[in-house]
């Protein structure tokens, strides 16, 4: 019996997946840098400044994903007659992003 592997679904970010992964790797490096700063007992404000930079970088990733979601997934939802569901899902995601801290 032969099993065929289905292709992964196309996501809104599929076209820019490489760029997205590169950005996330940079953020990962920034987090490691903050870990090293704490290990080295660096000045609190310097650590907080780096954390702020990490949050800004993640916000940029999130906004890019939202943009891709609107362009791809929301359009797909509209075509499939799920526009209200897709809109509610996106607004819930935006709400979660805004509720940090």
From TrEMBL:
Keyword NADP listed: no
Pfam families attached to this UniProt entry: Trns_repr_metal
Keywords: Copper
CDD domains named among the record's database cross-references: CsoR-like_DUF156 (cd10148)
Region feature Disordered, mapped onto this chain: 1-20
Family of the protein in this entry: Belongs to the CsoR family.
Name under which the protein is recorded: Metal-sensitive transcriptional regulator
């Amino acid at each position: 019996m032969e099993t065929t592997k289905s292709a992964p679904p196309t996501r809104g970010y599929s076209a820019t997946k490489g760029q997205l992964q590169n950005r996330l790797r940079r953020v990962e490096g920034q987090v490691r840098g903050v870990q090293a700063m704490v290990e080295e007992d660096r000045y609190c404000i310097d650590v907080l400044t780096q954390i702020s930079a990490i949050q800004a970088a993640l916000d940029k990733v999130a906004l890019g994903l939202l943009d891709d979601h609107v362009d791809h997934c929301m359009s797909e939802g509209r075509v499939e007659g799920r526009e209200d569901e897709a809109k509610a899902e996106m607004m819930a995601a935006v709400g979660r992003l805004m509720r940090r801290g």
